[in-house]
Amino acid sequence: MAKSISSNDTNNSSNKKNRRSLLLLITVFILPILLAKLALENQWLDLGVTNQGELLTQPLTLTDLGMNEPEFAQQWLIIYRLPSQCPDMCLHSIETVHNSYVALGKDMPRVTPVLLKGNIFSAQQNKQLTKSQWQILALTPQMKNLLHGPQVLIADPLGNIILSHQLPEQEQQQTSLGKAIIADMKKLLKYSKVG
User: Fold this and answer.
1) Is 79 left (phi over 0), alpha (psi -120 to 50) or beta?
2) pLDDT at 2 exceeding the cut of 50
């Protein structure tokens, strides 16, 4: 009789171990699936958004803006549409965007920085800008209609404007604008075979 009790204890112990193993196995496989489902449904994660700028929802091309310059063919463009007046904050933004272009290093020859401006600079400032690496174009009424307000745009070598970066309202945010432009450009240039 003692043998049958000890045999029952062994069977019960064995059954408990089997149940625990089964529960552990189910937990290991089911729990990650449940957590993933909850994360997706509750939007706990950024769903693959890797760009820093805002993707344009409406198609916009260089041709739409009247920018049919031959030097822009097969080039990535960083286009800065300037405001109607350019105080110190604007001048700092020009420097920030230009520094972002320079930070591209070996990829600089694939990119052209473009300023779209009205008649807002003094003769000395215009002279200084023409010495820089900026391609300077006059802001036409067509451009003003399509580009509402100052912003930084990125155009691909096929002439499509794909990203827009809004200018910061405070000078302390200039660094984050520069970093965002650099991050987007490096990513685009890394995966692009064109330009």
Assistant:
1) beta
2) no
